[in-house]
Amino acid sequence: MRKVIGVVATVTLLVVSLGGTAQAFNPSGRTSAGALQARHSAGLPSSLSCSTPLRLHDGTNQTGTTVSVYARGLWIDLSAVGFDNKTSSFTVGACAVELASGSGGSGAHYTRCLSAGCVENVMDLGWNNVVSSVYLH
Ligand SMILES: [Ca+2]
Predict the structure, then answer these.
(1) How far is the CA of 41 from the centre of ligand 1 (A)?
(2) Which residues pair with 75 in a beta bridge?
(3) CB 3.0 to 4.6 Å from 72: which of 2, 129, 131, 136, for a disulfide?
(4) 32 alpha carbon to ligand 1 midpoint, in Å?
(5) CA of 19 to the centre of ligand 1 (A)
(6) pLDDT in the model for residue 95
(7) 131 Cα to the center of ligand 1, angstroms
(8) What is the SS3 assignment for 57?
(9) What gap in Å lies between CA 52 and CA 108, rounded to an integer?
(10) Tens digits of pLDDT across the chain (137 residues)
């Protein structure tokens, strides 16, 4: 029996830096590659934004609600996008990642599938719905 939750929400988290660091949260849907490209051409340094995101999924095997994280160089608290303790699978984008059980990189750190391009369809033992913050290198 499959639970239908209507339209699968895709939440995109982008971080734009203008001197300091401000987080822009876009709940309205997927940010297109074109929009991201526009940000790049608008001068967002690639050092702050990964070319392809870390995609976190609520369901196993890359299913369910998805959060895409592009921001590099800082810990992103998933509670900010309503995704605390929800990750059940993920795909690493072009930037290596760290995943932590607590906010701000605190707590235990995930130990496998952290390099660019890795696809984790089922979380390691004890890690289902545990990740609370992520970091893109
Ligand atoms: Ca989940």
Answers:
(1) 35
(2) 135
(3) 136
(4) 25
(5) 35
(6) 98
(7) 10
(8) strand
(9) 25
(10) 444 433 333 444 444 322 333 333 444 444 444 444 444 444 457 789 999 999 999 999 999 999 999 999 999 999 999 999 999 999 999 999 999 999 999 999 999 999 999 999 999 999 999 999 999 99
Which amino acid appears at position 112 of this protein?
A: R
- In this structure, what is the dihedral angle of CA atoms 109, 88, 127, 53, given to the nearest 10 degrees? 0
Q: What is the CA(64)–ligand 1 centre distance, in A?
A: 8
71 neighbors 15 (Cβ within 8 angstroms): yes
All residues at 6 or more sequence positions from 62 whose CB lies less than 8 Å from its CB, including other chains: 55, 89, 90, 91, 119, 121
Six-digit token string for 27: 């709940």
How far apart are the C-alpha atoms of 36 and 42, rounded to whole Å? Answer: 10
Task: Give dist(CA 48, CA 16) in Å, integer.
Answer: 8
Ligand 1 center–CA 9 separation, angstroms: 14
Looking at the domain that runs over 10-136, which CATH code has it been given? 2.60.20.10
